[in-house]
Every structure is written in C-alpha cells, then in structure tokens.
Amino acid sequence: MKRIVRYNSPPWSANNKRLVLLILFVLLSLALYRFRLLLLPLIMAMIMAYLIEPLVTQLTKRTPLSRNLSIGLIYLFLVAALVSIPVSTINPIVTQVNNFIHRTPQYIRDIGEFFQEPIVILDDIVIPIDQLSLDQLFTSLSSNAVQVVQTLGGQTISIFGSLATATISTVGWTIMVLFLSFYLVKDHETLFESMIKLAPKSYHSDLYQLTEGISVTWNSFLRGQLVLCMVVGTIIFVIALIIGLPNAITLALIAGFMELIPTFGPILAAVPAVLIAAIQADASWLGNIMSPFWFAVLVMGIYTFIYQFENYYLVPRIIGHHLKLHPLAVILGVLGGASVAGILGVMLAAPVLASIRLIWMYIYCKLTDQDPFSDEFMPFTKVKAPSTAVSTPTAPPNPDNPDNTAPAN
After folding, report:
1. Which residue, 149, 362, 401, 403, is the most exposed by fewest CB within 10 angstroms?
2. Which residues of 132-149 are buried (b: 16+ CB within 10 A; e: fewer)?
3. CB 149, CB 104: distance < 8 Å
4. pTM value?
C-alpha cells in the first residue's frame, strides 16, 4: 500500500498575495462585464427578497407554519397577484391608450387655443401671449399628430407583434427574478454566513456591523419609499377629487410612481397636473370660478405644499435620517445612475450613495485609526456579532456551594 507523505504547504509571500488578488479582481471585473445583462434581474431579485423577508419572518412568528411553507405561501400569493392584475386591467389599459392616441391631436389644439387668449392675472395685469405667433406651430404639431395616428393605425399588426414579443420577454425575466428572489429568501442566512467566512476571523465583527449599517439604510429607503408612494398618491387623489381636477386616478398613480425618483420626481409629477388644470379648467367646479391661469397656479401651489409637507414631516418619520446625503450629491447620483443603469439607477441612486458613504467612512476611520462604529460615524450599527473569542470553561456547580464562593480562611 502506497504511503501518503504529508508536508506543510509553504505560505505565500506578500508579492504573491498581491498578484493573486490583482488577478482575481481582473477576472471578477471581466465576468461582471461579460454577464452584465444578468446584473439587472439579480439586483431586482435582491430588492424583492429584501422586501419579502420581513413578511416571511412575521408569518413564521405569528403562525405555526414553518419558514419554507411561509415562503411558499407568500410567493404563491405574489404569483397570483402578478397574473390576476394584468389580466384584469389589460382591457381598460388598451382602451385608455387607444383613446389617448386618437385624442392627441385634440389635446394639441386645446393647448393652442389656450395660448390664443391673453392671461389675465389681475384686472390691470395681462400677459399678451395671444400676440405670439404660435398658430403655425400648433397647426403643424396637430397635423403631424394626425399623421402619426394614421401611421400607427396602419401598423397595428406589427405594433401588437412587437408588444407580444416584449410581453414574452418581460414574462421570462419576471420568472427569473421570482426564482432568484425565492432562493435568496430561502437561503439568505447560509449565503450571508458563507460570505462572512471568506474574510479573516478578526474582521467578522466589523463585517457584521458594516452590513447592519447598510441593511438599515436599505430598509429605511425601500420600505419607507413604498409607504411614501402610497401616502402621496392617496393625498393627490383626494385633493384632486375635492377641487374637481380631471383624471384624479391617473394623477395619483403618476405622483406615486414619481416618488421613486429622488429630487426630480415631484417636479415631473406636477407638470401634467398643472397642464390639465390650465387646459381643462372648465371641467372643474373650482376652475369655473377662477381663471385657467389662477387655477393652474393653485394646483402648482397645492403640489408644492404637499411635497414640502413630505420633505419636512413625512420623510423624517417614515424614512428617517439614515441616508444623510446632500441634495447636490443626490442630483449627481441620479444623473450617474441614469447613465449606468437607466431608470433603475435613478430610483436606487440614493441608497447606493448612502451605502458607498458608509463603506468610505469605514475605510477612512481605519486609515486614520478611529473607531468606525462610534456614534459620530455609524450610530445605528449597534449589533452583537458572533464572538470569535475562545470562551473560558467554567467549573461545574458544587451542590454544597451553589454560589461558587471561596471558602473562608
């Protein structure tokens, strides 16, 4: 029988370690670039898993169901919702889109008629916009819109074919995101522990603290943002009904969706409301009392008040102050996110910047020999990480001396 000789493997030198790390970094960068199309569904799956995890935890605590069964029930309900909502809304959506396409020329003519009359601010203050030569512009836009509608009508089959292809692609990506998020929720603890073990034991506590800070940031943003979407959308819907602003449901949906876009979202959400107020003021009971100009100004003021109320009252209480980002940093992050990841980069610019800030603060504190988890830098990362120290064994209890006190001399 052949004898196996064991020997101690020689350690790598510092230069070899640096070379291996450099090679691994290059290979990882190439892999990310090669499979960059998979990054978007992976990120969406991680976000979905992060949002579903608290539901699984609460369902497991409050019911006798096991964790796996709770995950299965939640995903079964989610799949049922994803199937039933499009099926029940496809006919109204198709009808509204069709009506919008055919009414686009009329909308353009209405805007042209609005600019054919002077804007009366007060009795002696009038803006003579009717003197601007805009008739040819709106006539050209209206005729072009008619041609576009006719072209779309003649290409109905190809349009629906493209829509069908896009729908199939969307369904495929949705199924992939659901599968990825399912396994992330199911095995997230095992995956997290495996990633922690890749680092030296002396840094396990730091990693637990740092990931806790990042988790608090994303938790505050994602779940808080969903609450803000519903709250702001509901407020817009109620106020639009009260003042009689047309298309209240559509404006509420736009306002809720635009909450996902930091800084620019509220401005973009107010634009269609102000235009509708200016063009269709006669459709509102309040617009019949006021001039179209002042009705549009009123709507703009309402939106401004709502978003100021959101920034100074709702956001601190729902999302909190964990992001700690300057508005200029958010704007630059939104622009950078749009260039890198499109609409998803715009929506996630704020939490990504906040996470980068936490990581940078940790590196900065390590470079300057400071405590990175002090109240000055990360006051919300006070968690107990698993200790890596070796525990000292204690003596078994003595029945004659239960307090283990030393005998008196």
Report:
1. 403
2. eeeeeebeebbeebeeee
3. yes
4. 0.66
Q: At what angle do helices 39-62 and 327-347 cross, to 10 degrees?
A: 90
- pLDDT band with cut points at 50, 70 and 90 for residue 157: low
Q: Which of the residue ranges 6-10, 46-50, 91-95, 124-128 has the most confident prediction, judged by mean pLDDT?
A: 46-50
Dist. CA 323–CA 162, nearest whole Å: 41
What are the residue boundaries of the structural domains of the chain, listed by start? Answer: 37-186, 199-385
Q: Which two tokens stand for residue 149?
A: 């509608």
